[in-house]
Amino acid sequence: MAVQPGERMQVVRGNITQLQVDAIVNAANASLAPGGGVDGAIRRAAGPELDEACRQLGGCPPGEARITPGFRLPARYVIHTVGPIYHGGQLGEAQLLRSCYINSLRLALEKGIRSIAFPCISTGVYGYPKSEACVIAVTAVSEWLRDQELPERVIFCCFDEEDYILYKKQLQELSA
Ligand code: AR6
Question: Which of 89, 115, 144, 171 has the fewest CB atoms within 10 Å of its CB?
């Protein structure tokens, strides 16, 4: 019997740069220029080659995704996606955030990636309300997993306790 979507999703609390997965996702900006938050952490851990690889990509519109090697990271790839800046929710933010997850998963499928970890895209500097973002993330990923065999495993990597609790609860509701 096929493995249910809920069993292929997992929540961890911690630093995404340390995860032993095929790909980690970065919450980037549209220029793919160096930033703070999770982007800063990923660039520090991957080394300067990642900055150069990002420069060569020439940017990425919100909702889309691009891929680079992981360089010095344990992860083989970094998938860079650009979340929406939250302006109150009436400017298509939810659709864009969903697209970040779906387009990242599409790239993962194309590359044969079996395990992938996502940070909580847009919920830091870009100000997306954490609870709404969590529902969008878990819904998008579970819908994808229902139809696709790859990635086999998706990790939601929560940096803070608030997100960790939200994701745990959301995944429990899914399996209830
Ligand atoms: N591991 C996992 N999650 C982390 C880590 C880490 N090491 N560090 C922070 N987070 P943010 P955004 C969480 O601000 O809101 C950048 O400067 C953090 O707690 O990194 O999409 C870009 O260049 C939060 O939950 O990304 C853009 O300009 C989540 O990662 C802008 O910020 C996302 O927070 C993008 O803003």
Answer: 89
Both tokens of 55, joined, read: 């420069």
pLDDT in tens, 144-161: 999 999 999 999 999 999
Q: Which residues are catalytic?
A: 39
Q: Are 116 and 81 in contact (CB under 8 A)?
A: no
81 lines ligand 1 (CB under 6 A): no
Q: Is the dihedral of CA 158, 15, 66, 3 positive or negative?
A: negative
Write down all domains in the chain, each with its CATH number in brackets: 8-175 (3.40.220.10)
Q: Give the distance (Å) from ligand 1 centre to CA of residue 1.
A: 37
pLDDT digits (tens, 9 = 90+) for 77-116: 999 999 999 999 999 999 999 999 999 999 999 999 999 9
Q: Is ligand 1 within 6 A of the CB of residue 129? A: no
